[in-house]
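Researcher: Here's the sequence for the chain we discussed earlier.
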Amino acid sequence: MQTLVLGNGPMGRALAGALTEAGHGVTTLGRPPGGRHPASAFADADVSFDFSTGSAVAGNVEQALAGGCRRMVIGATGWHDDRLGVEALLVAEGAAGVAAANFSPGVALFGRLVEEAAHLFAPLPDYDPFIVDWHRASKLDRPSGTARELSRRLTAAHPRKHRSRDQGQGGPTDPDELEVISIRAGASPGMHLVGFDAPGETLELRLTARDRSAYAAGALAAADWLLAAPRSPGLHPFDAVLSDLTAPVLAGST
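Model: Thanks. This is the structure I predict for it:
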């Protein structure tokens, strides 16, 4: 597999290392001097991995399609406003991508656990849910994309929490709002905690990343999934990849 990694930050370097270790050809590109990478940069790539910045995603997709790349793994965050346009481009060109705020298989399964926990606690009015995300000091977005996805899953499963309250909003806490707190300090690659607090006890679900190896492994799994069979044009969630990975295990348990 010939691959192109967009973004030479900590995640891009971890991914390039994992691809090289797996025997794949890798080209890594940092910030383009002219604002956009040339379409020719994508010409030989079976899969492009975008771990650059959210503001660059739409342009990177356009250039990838112009260069002939039809499979993309998008792990950048902060491009929500461009998502519909990116989806339309992929569909129009018959291309497919997997997009996620976090490609860790553990995070994906963690999201399912959070959703199930929200279902279980929803009928109990004394248990108030909350989310905390802690990342390195240099991480720009807050809450993280992962925290936003956990918030989406939790509020969808919890009828008393129909919207989230991001850190920085003033005023008294609305009981209908899910409290989401972000910490940006030190060098933590990522910690997400989902809690349910009552007067007499607190239950916490926590996932702590020790490094970026799990993220890289999940991104490789997404690329393998795109190459394994023709996928419908457009953006696919990482949950679809994870469902295929866990299907043999789930089938064996029935």
